[in-house]
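Encode chain A's predicted structure.
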Amino acid sequence: MTNDNKIGRRSFLKRSALAGGAVAGGTLAAPAVLAQAPIVLKMQTSWSASNIWQEFAQDYVNRVEAMSGGRLKIDLLPAGAVVAAFQVLDAVNDGLLDAAHSVPVYWYGKNKAASLFGTGPVFGGSATTMLSWFYEGGGAELYRELTQDIMGLDVEGYMGFPMFAQPFGWFKGEVNTAAELNGFKYRTVGLAADLLQSLGMSVAQLPGGEIVPAMERGVIDAFEFNNPSSDKDFGAHDVAKNYYLSSYHQASESFEFLFNSLTMEDLEPDLRAILVHGVEAVSTANTAKAMRRYSADLQWLQEDAGVTVHRTSKDILDAQIKAWDGLIPVLEEDPFMKKTLDSQRAWVEQVTFYELMNAPDYALAYEHYFPGKLKL
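Encoded structure for chain A:
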């Protein structure tokens, strides 16, 4: 089937359905705006129903439906309802799903450049810095080039919710030096896998729902996912008791909101705008909720689950930066990846200089009012 036929068939079916609704409305002599049924979009996430991120996706759905006045409805499904967690990109491209809520690193296996849109080298910019790069520094156009021009996909995507830097993760015992990492069987995803393999770890790339069972079976003996709430939901504290915060392996990631291009073309401009700008709205809401829930769940893990929370050592952080230094030249052998990395470096050099020079020492103030709590 040609792409033109695909567009025509999908458009014909959707518009015929809407026309049928209008005819029915005319038969009843009711106003068309009242007779028109809501447009229902099918959206799947890469998260289990119990993961806090499914709730974050529902927050997006709620905002879209409210802003559309009921003209848009989204049927939100968890991972596995239609396809597996790592397969949502293909499902959106093929039209099995109208939309997906995921992260680009989950399709790293299709093109390593995907990992640059969330789990690439950390030049000093935070997730907020890099989300700003996406919208104001040329990242969105590079993302479009990757997905549509290079990979030939019928998708468009937007980033939202700058994630807090991901913890180094869960270990059964203490790890204080980079040398001690050698031989660990560890779960992570994307370019973080390449990074940590260079430090001597054996890496398995697994969806979130498979992590704890893999730990119980001995397939892995250490892991990271993303945050205290998701880790608590998985039962991470049942299989390990040492939790290391702070890492450069995934320090600047955001959610990815994927839409089928043909679905978007069939929508009225105002409804398309609601789907797109709804990402911005829920980004703020997700950030606020994450601050509340992540911090409360970290406290629960410490006080009720017997977890010892550590800050990853400077020795390990230094080793991670040096490992990125070794990996970047290899990545830059690909022209698109070099162009993307050049864009990110230029953005971080400019923006983070301002951010760091302008930021007061928040740790100094926190230590003044809450002495002895920080483990620096």
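The chain is about 50% helix and 15% strand.
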